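Look at one such:
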Amino acid sequence: MTDPKEILRQHLSQFVSLTEEQLEYVFSHFTLVSLKKGQMLLSEGDLVNEEYFVLDGCLKAFYLNDMMKMFILQFAMPNWWVSDYNALYSHQKATVNIDCITNATVLTITNENREKICNEIHEVEHFFRWRTNKGYVAVQKRLLSFMNNDVKFRYEELLSMYPQLYNLVPKHLIAAYLGVSRETLSRLYQP
């Protein structure tokens, strides 16, 4: 894996310009965490005070209903952010679970530290605002796709946007992301 600070630098530099001193300061507010495949990062009922920037590996954010059916809200691959944002911003307990599909390395930042550096460095505030807006747009597009497209279309769309998912994520998890059973996905998609 490339140096974590360099990965964060490259990610931020796509959207904002920071001096070396600013980057050092921003990076000092993150904590590096290594995770094992299957390890829970966040469980329903936990207090949430952090968000996670994926350096390598793949995580999933998911919800289990009362019947223990899994609904995957997000796959988080390198350079993606993940948390239970409702719980993080509203200071409530988590309703979303996050675990590792593969071994993973993440940078964590607390809500307080994110707000601190956003207040101190305008470019960082701009980055987080831009990222939040981009996330909102992605969720809106996903909901519209659920309302307007069949499963086969959504599957093909997902794999055309993120081809690495096909080899990285087990098919039953892709099915849970699409809101169908593994069997339904197998019937609909014949490679």
In short: The mean pLDDT is 92. Strands lie at 31-35, 40-42, 50-56, 59-64, 70-76, 81-82, 97-100, 104-110.
